[in-house]
Specification:
five-stranded mixed sheet, 3 helices, 5 strands, globular, disordered N terminus
Amino acid sequence: MIATQSTRSFKSFTEKDYNNLSYKIIECCMEVHKELGPGLMESVYEICAETEMKKAGLYVQRQVLLPVTFKGEKLEKEFVIDTLVNDLIILEFKSVEVILPVHEAQLVTYMKLADKKLGLLINFNVSLLKEGIRRKINGN
């Protein structure tokens, strides 16, 4: 069973729970990639992935604002998380020729600022989607 935030605290979410949820997310993204293929804009994949994940019973939030704080002060600037699933896993979508270290750093920064344990960087501009997936863990 894939628990939602409302039924279970992420602090009690086990490694197996995270693995099951991320597997379901990847399965949905693979369905999108199978249908659309590479070469489209990131925003197209994002909205299609949202549709697939919602059909799969996941709680999905797109374009989640993440406030920027500096030395304890909230600034008039926000980061935008592409997608947050079940209030637990951050998804950062790309449609680029090559995933660069800056793309991975962006995801890790969002995970730290949002206090999320797991993130997936998914590049849809590849022949096989599994080649475009990077999994990042915040902490142990």
